[in-house]
Amino acid sequence: MENSQAALLMLAFLLFLKGSSTLVVKPVTDPVIGEVGDTVTLEIKPPGALAAISWVSPTSITVVSLTGSTPVIGPGYENRVTLDTSTGSVELRSVNRKDAGVYVFDGITIVSGIRESFKGNITLNVSALVLKPVTDPVISKDGDNVTLEIRPPGALTAMTWTFSPTGITVVSWSRSAPVIGTGYVNRVTLNTTTGSLGLSSVNGSDSGVYLFRGKTAVSGNPEDIDGNVTLEVYEPITNVKVEPNPAQPIANQTLKLACLVLGSQIVSSRLWLKDGQPLDSSDRITVSVNSSVVSFNKVLQSDNGDYQCKANGPVNEVTSAVYRLEVNYGPEQASLTGPDKAALNSSVTFTCSAQSVPACIYIWYVNGIQTAQGSQYQIDAVSNVDTGSYMCMAWNSVTRRTSIAEKKLVLFSVTGKEGPILSAGEITGVVIGTLAGVTGIALGVYFSVKLCRKNPDDPKLGPAERSLDAVTWPNASETYENIATDQTASKAKKQDHAYTDLQSPDQSTYSTLNE
Ligand SMILES: *[C@@H]1O[C@H](CO)[C@@H](O)[C@H](O)[C@H]1NC(C)=O
Fold it and tell me: What are the DSSP E strand ranges found in 358-504?
């Protein structure tokens, strides 16, 4: 009974085989497109397990066949064909234009233990070679040695490079020694294996498009190659500088820091650093769109620190030297220390101090008469003429501000009675003298201002004159300050002018300011 069942099944199978046609397998991709030199795969996925296959080329050559366990590679395909023995797909390397056409395959697969034959075809298109350079564009800086590198497939037999802006043939080679073009002797090399062009000591005039054209043999088949490479030669950034305006920044006034880039025509970006960290901008500290200028509105002592500008060009990056910002301010809160009373013939020292950058100058007035300069005022042996008003004026030559402190000195009487030994009439005299002293101080200040002023052509009287009007004069030990608004404004205007001048002399090197 079992035997008859088996016989029936066999019969049914034979009938099935007789009636079934060969399976047509569709390729995974059709057509397959490659460029000269490419590796392509003619991919199929027949059902079941592959038992046998054979591929026939467009020129009716058997590319590869498999009947046993080892594939047999056909003539002309040695070393460039691999058969995938599980699917029957074929990898074809270094294709050339003669490889193009219809490839026919047929084989046997085993589905559920049953052998089935299959067949199909696949078209290979091979497009002409457009060779891409290894790097394009090639970016370099003045004086560099550069290589315009290409990697054509196959064995190179000829190569010519032409500089398109001038049409000059840089180098031409065809089996014999390369011929170097006019103007390129001693600075050109041709790698005859790859066809790459070497140029030494390039400069701006070497910038442009280089065309190449050559011959190679891919899988024994001659192929033309051509393409182009762009060379860009840039001047490097040689120096970066931070330029303050005004040169001497003053607290609560505007300050601009400019980033000057020298050398390169092109600045891709700038970065401001304070104490080595990227500068934080705010409502008060603003950075221009291209970062060439930082504006402080207004500058404060808290802005003190080391400022740098880092500039990036196409070929290099340079960080400026440190600009150390120290905001000038003061004098603030002048104070006068010393005794209120002194014994006859004793020695007395008054000291004046005020907060100020730069250090201020101290001018002493005794009873309204300018007497000395320096932070200390000393009397070796006090006498009656030394009594009265002592005033020190602190003067900052950069901020053009002053601060005043005053106190009175009286004598101890021998009998122990204190106070100035003055009659009512004498007191009136002192008051008059003091008032006269006001004029004296004004004149004194005027001369001091002239001595300290950096622009002696400035005809304006120093601010001290105005401030003295406001002084409530007889109150001793009070501090008076004033702000030299007009003078600093005129000074700033002058420096603005100088700053503008700075931009014009060489637009190419100071390119940053023009943006
Ligand atoms: C040509 O280029 C190849 C690949 O970069 C390199 O290995 C070879 O040394 C070069 N030949 C010469 C003569 O420079």
Answer: 361-366, 369-373, 376-379, 388-396, 401-411, 480-482
Tens-digit pLDDT profile for residues 233-260: 999 999 999 999 999 999 999 999 999 9
Query: What is the distance in A from the centroid of ligand 1 to the CA of 191?
Result: 6
Ligand 1 pocket residue status of 125, Cβ below 6 Å: no
Ligand 1 centroid from CA 190, angstroms: 9
Share of the chain above pLDDT 70, in %: 76
Q: Find the 170 Cα to ligand 1 centroid distance in Å.
A: 19
Q: Which two tokens stand for residue 171?
A: 């180098």
Q: Domain residue spans in the chain? A: 2-127, 130-234, 240-322, 328-515
Sign of CA dihedral 373, 376, 380, 383: positive
Q: Is 131 exposed, middle or buried (0-12, 13-18, 19+ CB in 10 A)?
A: buried
Please, which pLDDT band fits residue 415 given cuts at 50, 70 and 90?
Answer: low
* Banded pLDDT at 129 (limits 50, 70, 90): confident
- CATH 2.60.40.10 applies to domain 328-515: yes
Architecture of domain 130-234: Sandwich (2.60)
On whether the CB atoms of residues 278 and 269 are closer than 8 A, the answer is no
How far, in Å, from the CA of 151 to the mean position of ligand 1? 11
Which residue's C-alpha comes closest to atom 13 of ligand 1?
A: 191
Nearest C-alpha to atom 11 of ligand 1 is from which residue?
A: 191
What spacing in Å lies between the alpha carbon of 97 and ligand 1's midpoint? 27
User: What per-residue confidence (pLDDT) applies to 219?
Assistant: 81
CA distances (Å), 213 to each of 20, 96, 134, 160, 363, in order?
A: 56, 18, 16, 5, 85
Statement: residue 265 has pLDDT above 70: yes
What's the pTM?
0.56
Q: Which of 145, 149, 191 is the pocket-test mutation for ligand 1 (most atoms within 8 Å of CB)?
A: 191
Taking the centre of ligand 1 as the mean of its atom positions, its distance from the CA of residue 81, in whole angstroms, is: 28
Report the CATH fold assignment for 2-127: Immunoglobulin-like (2.60.40)
Closest ligand 1 atom to 193 CA:
1
CATH architecture of 240-322: Sandwich (2.60)
Q: Dump strand ranges (E) for 322-422.
A: 323-325, 329-337, 341-342, 348-357, 361-366, 369-373, 376-379, 388-396, 401-411
Please work out whether the CB of residue 194 comes within 6 Å of at least one atom of ligand 1: yes
Q: Is 193 in the pocket of ligand 1 (CB under 6 A)?
A: yes
Choosing from 156, 193, 197 the residue with most ligand 1 atoms within 8 A of its CB, the one to mutate for a pocket test is: 193
pLDDT cut 90: percent of the chain above it: 68
3-state secondary structure of 487: helix
Question: Of the candidates 362, 346, 360, which has an alpha carbon nearest to the alpha carbon of residue 409?
Answer: 346
